[in-house]
Amino acid sequence: MGEQNQSLESFWMPFTGNRAFKKKPRLVERAAGMHYYTPGGREILDMVAGLWCCNAGHGHPKIVEAIQAQAAKMDYAPHFGFGHPAAFEAADMLASIAPEGMNHVFFTNSGSESVDTALKIALAYQKERGQASRTRLIGRERSYHGVGFGGISVGGIPYNRMQFSNSMIPGVDHLPHTHLLDRNAYSRGLPEHGIELADELENIVGLHHASNIAAVIVEPIAGSAGVLIPPKGYLKRLREICDKHDILLIFDEVITGFGRLGDNFASQAFDVKPDIITAAKGLTSGTVPMGAVIVRDEIYNEFMSKPGGAIELFHGYTYSAHPLAVAACKATQTVYKDEGLFHRAAEMASVFEQALHSLKGEPNVIDVRNYGLMGAVELAAIDGQPGARGADLLQKAFDAGLMIRITGDTIAFSPPLIVEESHMQQAVETLKTILRDL
Ligand SMILES: Cc1ncc(COP(=O)(O)O)c(C=O)c1O
Fold first, then answer.
1. Nearest Cα to Cα of residue 259 among 337, 356, 143, 146
2. Ligand 1 atom at minimum distance from 291 CA
3. What is the residue-wise DSSP string for 290-310?
4. Per-residue pLDDT reduced to its tens digit, 64-73
5. Residues 166-212: pLDDT tens digits?
6. Cα 44 to ligand 1 centroid, rounded to whole Å
7. What does the alpha-carbon distance between residue 49 and residue 412 come to, in Å, rounded to a whole number?
8. 262 Cβ inside 6 Å of ligand 1
9. Is the CB of 109 under 6 A from ligand 1?
10. pLDDT-derived band of residue 438, with 50, 70 and 90 as boundaries?
């Protein structure tokens, strides 16, 4: 083993084939704007915003400055029984962009923590309001809700569950996924077919009775399973069924929040209001780990309505509202607003759509789909080797100066919101060359 490879040994890398990576590492050590740079100085175009998170682009000077200043001013503040003013300001900022009537924010450090926090809030809320039998949670096939035990239990990605199958939280059902390739391939925006898949919730209610169901959790657009866009009317239908049976609806907006769909949250882009929103990633543009759970006022007020000043929710993290994260969050939200980045994302969506759909007809492409600045190109799997074509493409793209995300044989795109048409063209041309030679 060479010297460089030896130095990679200690880090057990997440969601990575460690042995393959360490044989042929893809390293980056610097970033600016739309680009990463390898240790050798090679420029890599970032078409995934890191990992769906760097929405403001890399190294924005105002965000960098805010983090640096906070590090010098106060390193850490406890939030169990104490507080620091900027954390309350950050919560106000999030409430001001959340759907109306969702004015309370619980801070976490990641998407996974946001999901598990949201599930716990949902369960505790049902108990608080005297509906303790409502304990079942409903997720969806092909959904990703992080890696906590709650998240993998409601999640629907088989590989993420199989090593832990005996340790899932009990009482979870799954809705069918909405990826109807045979009926909806090459949809631009919301696919036409599949609204009826939401009705499966009625069947689950029929099986267990509504009085036993606490909450439904879905990603408005499923990201990690390959950008699965909801059929027209599907999310509204889910909302209606939840309302009918008094079930909470949680939108996991860890990816879809903060301009990805051209609005503050998917809730606003799709005009469907959930009861709880989970967020992370773009919250700080990926600069400092942070997550948030935003809840409807009725939920918060239920916890606050009991007499006495005791702890209302026995939950929290040492680093909830960490000062560096709070500084990053405030600066990021200010940048989004001052630079009109969400509006920009909405404006660039049609250019993005055009660019992606120009890959239709290239070898092995079987679908192209998009919404806002989120898109995917699905490739046919090699017989008996699912994922092999995707893995090959990922490496070749990196070698050619392009960072994309691959899930199985699907290429996912979620560029920083500062992306220009020329970046999209570069990405598409690079992929065309690789696909023709793969
Ligand atoms: C929808 C969704 N929920 C939760 C998570 C987990 O977030 P994290 O990796 O920050 O724990 C992700 C991460 O990609 C996600 O896309």
1. 337
2. 10
3. -EEEEE-HHHHHHHHTSSSSS
4. 999 999 999 9
5. 999 999 999 999 999 999 999 999 999 999 999 999 999 999 999 99
6. 24
7. 11
8. no
9. no
10. confident
Residue 169 is given by DSSP the state P
What's the mean per-residue pLDDT of the chain? 97
**Atom of ligand 1 at shortest range from CA of 223:** 16
Phi-psi region of 87 (alpha: psi -120 to 50; beta: other; left: phi over 0): alpha
Residues 314 and 421 both lie in one domain: no
Q: Which of 338, 365, 383 is the last residue of a domain?
A: 338
CATH number, domain containing residue 414: 3.90.1150.10
Strand arrangement of the beta sheet that strand 136-140 belongs to: 104-108, 291-295, 276-279, 248-252, 213-218, 136-140, 172-175
Q: Which helix (H) or strand (E) holds 123?
A: helix 111-128
**Residue-level length of the chain:** 438
- What the block records as the tokens of 431 is 């992929």
- Cβ–ligand 1 distance for 251 under 6 Å, the answer no
Q: Distance, CA 111 to ligand 1 centroid (Å)?
A: 4
Strand pairing class (291-295; 365-371): unpaired
C-beta atoms surrounding 52 within 10 Å: 23
Residue nearest to atom 8 of ligand 1 (CA): 111
- Residues of the domain holding 90: 64-338
Q: Which run of H or E residues covers position 216?
A: strand 213-218
26 plus 161 within the same structural domain: no
pTM of the model: 0.97
> Of 286, 308, 338, which residue constitutes the final position of a domain?
338
Q: Under a CB-based contact definition with an 8 Å cutoff, are residues 395 and 24 in contact?
A: yes
Q: What is the DSSP string of 101-119?
A: T--EEEEESSHHHHHHHHH
pLDDT the model gives residue 2 = 40
Judge if the beta carbon of residue 112 lies within 6 A of ligand 1.
yes
The alpha carbon of 400 and the centre of ligand 1 are apart by a number of angstroms equal to: 28
Give the three-class secondary structure for 190: coil
Residues 6+ apart with CB under 8 A from 413: 47, 48, 227, 352, 356, 373, 374, 375, 376, 377, 404, 405, 427
Q: Which of 250, 296, 271, 267 is nearest to 146 (CA)?
A: 250
User: Band of the pLDDT at 6, cuts 50, 70, 90?
Assistant: low
The C-alpha atoms of residue 137 and residue 187 are separated, in whole angstroms, by 31
Query: Which run of H or of E encompasses 71?
Result: helix 61-73
CA of 282 to the centre of ligand 1 (A): 11
Task: Kindly tell me the burial class for residue 242, based on how many C-beta atoms sit within 10 Å of its own C-beta (0-12, 13-18, 19 or more).
Answer: buried
